[in-house]
């Protein structure tokens, strides 16, 4: 069956993914209207939805409340507009006129529908893009707007897409909130009537919420029920508005930029909105997460097949106090633990002795690295590890040579304060010369030193976001900044194909599908407390796969919570992602070093499951009882179960953990104990993991399919 089909009589377009369908048509007024999004349909079945509009029964209702593919500000529409324009003569309303369509095959296994429109009178062309993939239920959507006239058109809102759900008795919204060092806290709550706005006005994706939602009718569970989800691929300010109306409908619109900013579109200029991907599943929240993970691995990450190395990062061990002898000593200890990528964090350049000075002066401090970075890089390579370096290219300390030379390069307004956060200001990456400057020093730094990995940090939100050289600067910079950031990273990657990049913004402040399409992993949070980390990782993993989630084992008492938990527990929590170590190895005892080395070796035996396997969440972090995650090989030949228990309680039952996704006819051997279990017992009845007694107890159970003696299915 073709992936994109069209019924000329009814005008219905049907996009089909392996398990879902999405149907739309252009209505009698020329507007692209939504028909259906859910379980798979034939074209004839989808045509049932193309019924004539029911006229509104009062003069207060406006257009019939069916969904539109991109609700505009215009006519009798009163919901949140996805497209809101102001033409040169002050006219604001947009009126659709269809001009054609294209069906493309952008790559093998991908099909794209482009619906083309223009305004009936004014010079604005609009095209709606829908991309579907052969083996994936994610539909990627975006909008392209082009000014075809001779005067500027102002885009007051230019969302990527609007998504419409079918009518239901009730709706529930799942999303994350947070703050620095407490990102990705999952909330699942009844969707309020009216409009619920999730947004970042910070110029960066933000710690405080993340540009994705899941919606269900209030009846979905981890394993069952219909879930609709959408995620925006954008790393600057953004807004997603979820609407619930009294007629039993819900939908959402989302795109780049927050309210109050506008985008001037000069004559001939085009604006391509970021991708806003969506998916439907009837397999509950777990299936939604797995579909997102598969999409990120298949269509987002630049090198999805790679196994990410075990890394060491110096930040919690040394703070800003880095020098060549200290780093050599740490590198030697890291190599002995089995670390494969050694990352030197902040403090290696200019006058950087604290967060007060030096940011922007990207040459190694001569007193700390008298012969530059090359001797340390060589030593790390000699030890058999790759070398990574921390950078924060978008920032400057006012106490720096760069700022003294280019005070105008920062975001600012002429008669306003320049508010410092962490003693730093934001360089205006929207300015071409700033982006070029960053690209020039970064590409030289990587080339001159043979750097394998950059941790790209960004440690403050925007303020006084002005660009005084341009009258339209304070509107343009919100998108231009992010586009230039992307372009610098893309150029760097093209120059250095072996270079890998970690996205970091004070932890998880810039994690989204946009940045992940040009980086290799993300630093999910500065908070490395293993207990706090369980809920952070739970929220992160709703959309983003473990393959992208860097997680370090650090020292106790933890610097955020003063909590002490055993080394084994810390490892087992970090093993749920891309394992890293961030402790002060100079202070680890011989016993800790030996235990650490054994756990690193254990991780290497199972990391293909964590990084490329299929995630199930047998038990979420609901209380201090056990939390369990399972990663299964795509061919079901192996599985890893990680279990963490904060506190045992007398009288509380010890419940078996029911696994999922195993080969039902097979038996699986526990690689540590040698005990063999039937898959049907593991999935139907469960496994009672052996947890050591006491608080902060954990287990990693590696199950390997037995080759022989298959039982009847
Ligand atoms: C914030 C990051 O999240 C930390 O890991 C560390 O790199 C510091 N910045 C360095 O300033």
Task: Give a verbal description of the structure.
The chain folds into three domains: 4-299, Beta-galactosidase, Chain A, domain 5 (Distorted Sandwich), CATH 2.70.98.60; 311-612, Alpha-Beta Barrel (TIM Barrel), CATH 3.20.20; 618-705, Golgi alpha-mannosidase II (Immunoglobulin-like, Sandwich). The chain is globular, with a radius of gyration of 26 Å. α11 links the parallel β30 and β31 (578-581). α7 packs parallel to α8 and α11 runs parallel beside α12. Strands 6, 7, 8, 9, 12, 13, 15, 16, 20 and 21 form a ten-stranded antiparallel β-sheet that branches. Strands 22-23-24-27-28-29-30-31 form an eight-stranded parallel barrel, surrounded by five helices. It is built from 13 helices and 37 strands. The chain is an alpha+beta fold. The structure holds (2R,3S,4R,5S)-2-(hydroxymethyl)piperidine-3,4,5-triol. The site of (2R,3S,4R,5S)-2-(hydroxymethyl)piperidine-3,4,5-triol has 11 residues, from loops.
């Amino acid at each position: 069956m073709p992936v994109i089909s069209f019924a000329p009589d009814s005008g219905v377009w049907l996009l089909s993914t392996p398990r879902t369908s999405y149907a739309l048509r252009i209505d009698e007024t020329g507007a692209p209207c939504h028909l259906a999004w859910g379980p798979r349909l034939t074209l004839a079945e989808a045509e049932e939805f193309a019924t004539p509009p029911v006229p509104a029964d009062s003069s207060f209702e406006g257009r019939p409340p069916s969904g539109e593919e991109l609700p505009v500000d215009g006519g009798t529409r009163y919901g949140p507009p996805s497209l809101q324009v102001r033409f040169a003569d002050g006219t604001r309303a947009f009126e659709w006129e269809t001009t054609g369509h294209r069906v493309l095959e952008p790559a093998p296994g991908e099909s794209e529908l482009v619906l083309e429109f223009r305004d009936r009178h004014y010079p604005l062309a609009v095209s709606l893009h829908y991309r579907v993939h052969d083996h994936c239920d994610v539909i990627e959507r975006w909008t392209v707007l082009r000014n075809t006239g001779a005067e500027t058109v102002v885009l007051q809102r230019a969302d990527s897409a609007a998504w419409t759900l079918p009518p239901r008795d009730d709706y529930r919204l799942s999303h994350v909130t947070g703050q620095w060092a407490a990102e990705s806290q999952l909330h699942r709550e009844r969707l309020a009537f009216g409009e619920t706005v999730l947004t970042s006005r910070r110029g960066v994706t933000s710690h405080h919420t993340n540009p994705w939602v899941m919606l269900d009718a209030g009846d979905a569970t981890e394993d069952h029920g219909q879930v609709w989800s959408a995620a925006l691929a954008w790393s600057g300010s953004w807004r997603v508005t979820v609407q619930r109306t009294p007629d039993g409908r819900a939908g959402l619109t989302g795109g780049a930029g927050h309210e109050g900013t506008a985008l001037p579109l000069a004559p001939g200029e085009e604006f391509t909105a970021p991708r806003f991907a969506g998916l439907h599943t009837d397999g509950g929240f777990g299936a939604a997460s797995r579909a997102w993970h598969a999409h990120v691995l298949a269509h987002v990450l630049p090198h999805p097949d790679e196994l990410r190395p075990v890394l060491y990062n110096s930040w919690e061990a040394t703070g800003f106090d880095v020098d060549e002898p200290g780093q050599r000593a740490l590198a030697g200890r890291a190599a002995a633990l089995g670390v494969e990528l050694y990352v030197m964090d902040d403090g290696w350049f200019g006058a950087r002795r604290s967060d007060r000075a030096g940011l922007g002066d990207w040459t190694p401090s001569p007193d700390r690295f008298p012969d530059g970075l090359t001797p340390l890089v060589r030593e790390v390579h000699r030890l058999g590890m790759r070398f990574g370096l921390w950078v924060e290219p978008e920032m400057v300390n006012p106490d720096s040579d760069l700022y003294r030379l280019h005070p105008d390069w920062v975001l600012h307004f002429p008669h306003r304060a320049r508010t410092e956060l962490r003693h730093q200001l934001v360089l205006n990456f929207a300015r071409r010369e700033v982006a070029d400057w960053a690209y020039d020093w970064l590409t030289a730094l990587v080339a001159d030193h043979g750097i394998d990995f950059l941790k790209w940090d960004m440690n403050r939100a925007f303020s006084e976001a002005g660009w005084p050289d341009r009258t339209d600067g304070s509107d343009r910079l919100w998108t231009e900044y992010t586009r230039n950031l992307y372009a610098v990273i893309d150029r760097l990657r093209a120059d250095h194909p072996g270079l890998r990049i970690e996205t970091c913004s004070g932890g998880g402040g810039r994690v989204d599908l946009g940045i992940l399409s040009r980086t290799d992993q993300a630093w999910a949070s500065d908070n490395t407390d293993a207990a706090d980390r369980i809920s952070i990782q739970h929220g992160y993993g709703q959309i983003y796969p473990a393959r992208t989630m860097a997680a370090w084992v650090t020292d106790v008492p933890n610097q955020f919570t003063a909590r002490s938990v055993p080394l084994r527990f810390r490892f087992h929590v970090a093993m749920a992602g891309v394992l890293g170590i961030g402790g002060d190895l100079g202070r680890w005892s011989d016993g800790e070093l030996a235990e650490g080395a054994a756990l690193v070796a254990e991780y290497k035996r199972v990391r293909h499951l964590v990084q490329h396997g299929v995630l199930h969440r047998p038990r979420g972090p609901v209380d201090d009882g056990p939390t369990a995650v399972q990663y299964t090989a795509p061919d079901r030949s192996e599985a890893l179960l990680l279990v963490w228990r904060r506190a045992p309680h007398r009288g509380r039952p010890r419940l078996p953990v029911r696994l999922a996704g195993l080969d039902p006819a097979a038996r699986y051997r526990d690689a540590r104990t040698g005990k063999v279990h039937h898959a049907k017992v593991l999935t139907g009845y469960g496994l009672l993991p052996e947890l050591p007694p006491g608080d902060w107890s954990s287990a990693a159970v590696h199950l390997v399919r037995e080759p022989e003696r298959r039982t009847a299915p």
